[in-house]
Amino acid sequence: MSRVLSPARFQNQDLTAVSLPLPHNIEAEQGLLGALLIDNNGYDRIADVITPEHFYTPVHGRIFDAICNYLHKGQNASPVTLKSFFQADPDLEQLGGAAYLADLAGNVISLINTEDYAKTIRACHQQRCLLDLADDMALAARGQDIDATPTQIIEEAEQRLYALAETGSDSHGLKPFSHYSFSALEQAERAITSSGRISGITTGLPSIDRKLGGLQRSDLIILAGRPSMGKTSLALNIAYNAARARLETAGEQGGIVAFFSLEMSGDQLTTRILADQAKLPSDSIRRGAIDQNALKACIEAAQSNDRLPLFIDQSGTLSLATLRSRARRLKRTHGLHLIVIDYLQLMHSPSRRNSDNRVAEVSEITRGLKQIAKDLDVPVLALSQLSRAPEMREDKRPLLSDLRESGSIEQDADVVIFVYREEYYLARTEPQPGTDDHLNWQQAIEAAANVAEAIIAKQRHGSIGTIKLNFEPAFTRFTDLGNL
Length: 484
Description:
The protein is built from 19 helices and 11 strands. Strand 9 (about 450-460) and strand 10 form a beta hairpin. The chain has helices at about 25-40, 45, 60-70, 80-85, 90-95, 100-105, 115-140, 150-165, 175-195, 205-210, 230-250, 265-275, 285, 290-305, 320-335, 360-375, 410, 420-425, 435-450; strands at about 220-225, 255-260, 310-315, 320, 340, 345-350, 380-385, 415-420, 450-460, 465-470, 475-480. Helix 15 runs parallel beside helix 16. It has 2 domains: about 5-165, DNAb Helicase, Chain A (Orthogonal Bundle), CATH 1.10.860.10; about 200-415, P-loop containing nucleotide triphosphate hydrolases (Rossmann fold, 3-Layer(aba) Sandwich), CATH 3.40.50.300. It is an alpha/beta fold.
């Protein structure tokens, strides 16, 4: 047998354990390197599959890295050109010195197996990483790290598993136009066959759906407004409407929704939904101001929504890593079509936990949310606060510059929607009764009663504009203005 293809030659380098050796395939590593040294063009087929770190044999990783460096510089990589590079390498000397490079090229059986070799090497590396992860989890679970809670250990493990699965994933990289044109045509077909002519997830508000085409996959949608404008109510309405549409159409419309509430509890959110469905004032259940008939209506509302695909996470604090891991888990176990976050300024980024630069932290969070939307291929609807700037202007309608701790919020968002209610401000500026100003004020507040504006200030793939909605404060319910 050739000296090149004998794994026994690597035993002196302590590359295999006495028992239970780590997963590896030295022949695949040798075959890949030899093929590349003969035909540099093969590198283009495997460049996205493996890196030097994937090789089990350290010297093989260094040879691959050298080949990559030569090719990136536009130079030829061959046993001759690499010879001087490895003349003083002690590991290579144990294998026969620079002559080992010639042996690699000389023992190549076929050049068509390059991709198979690369995938085999990557698979072995993934197996080794899984074993490392298992060891780390075992140590952590035994209390080696006193600062790590079981939940943190699980979340870190999930994050590492996801990163491992994405390494060399075929879902990335350049794809032909036909790959995406088919996807685009599918999206257009969904819009045509949909009764509401939308291709995304329905908001349950036809006027917004027509403007946006529904909530689109991989989009980051920012829903912002000053306090008491109804941000949470609108987000909860959208989440419920999407989940309800999924339930009523057996999955043809709407979607499975994850609602991350950092401000309100799951009980409070559910109570709002039940009160709305039972046609009761939203605070009546909390105050116990209901009779037996009203209680029966609530029970019926709960029963009708028993299988509602709406999942609520009421964590008081939430990091990007935790959100990503919980969303991935839900997608894996039940499916996932929409993520709602109330609200992004309450999130934190562990990498900047001790930083005083809150703008940079929020910017990192918005970039992370956009990445989650792309990775999971779902729309992410994140609520955001506004600065006090609108309060200082005569026209208090929000502007993009009002986004609090904005940083890259405007830049990262695909859609920015502001919620604005003129009635809220008019109610706090009542003139002296009996005056002409009071008469004008009365007319203005009557015109603004129960009217809210959804101001689409940015839409990366469409037009902007203002949509008027009906808002019923007693039920915290938004509907189309025409559906009064």
